[in-house]
Amino acid sequence: MRNPVGAVHAWWRSLRRRKRVATPTYWSEYERRLAQEAQPASTPIEALRLVVLDTETTGLDHKRDQVISFAAVRVEHRELSVAQAVDWRIRTPLPSPGRSIEVHGVLNGELEYGMPADLFVERLVAYLGADIIVGYRPGFDMAILNRLVAQHTGRRLTNPTLDVFDLAMRVDYPLKPRFVNPEPYRLDALCHSYDIDTPERHTAIGDAYVTALVLLKLLNRLTEGGLRTRGDLLRNYP
Fold this sequence. Notes:
Elements: H1 4-17, H2 26-37, E1 49-57, E2 67-76, E3 79-89, H3 99-103, H4 108-112, H5 117-128, E4 132-135, H6 139-153, E5 161-163, H7 164-172, H8 187-193, H9 204-224, H10 230-234
Parallel strand pairs: 1-4, 4-5
Antiparallel strand pairs: 1-2, 2-3
């Protein structure tokens, strides 16, 4: 049987060995923007600032794998701001050479000369500001991004987050049902339903772009159904 006291001592020793991360100066600007630029709950949906993002990674374990590319498209006043889109490569050592090009279309050489992780985190924080983050099933993206953010800042992102999957469900089911077949709400299925082409699927920029287009379609449907404000949109699925 495992000794619980010994386990606690081992945990404490490992905790003391961890290197304390100094909070960088740019983090205070991020916190200032969150406090001062966050839009109130009464803000009309038409006036919201949203960032639709996607990551591509070396695997599906957010505790061990690495971000290899990040892309985002900004949505303002219910319109895509293509001029403000970003598509970044992050300098990452790949455990299996060549695998990234098969899955994501990212060449190993692109990663060797990509953005250093610390610079990526700084630019990510500046890009997001106080905007609402949107993704398709963004839990994994946020977990792996927050692990990277924590490594370089000791903190985590605290922007409000929306899931396009949940928004699509809310269009058809204003009151959350006990069970619904998820297949019609997968990203490819939603793109098909809304006649959205997907030539760059499974790249960060391609997935961010089509997710943003689906988001716009869903916002139209949701406002027709009675949603009016930021508070309505961010309210938990009933």
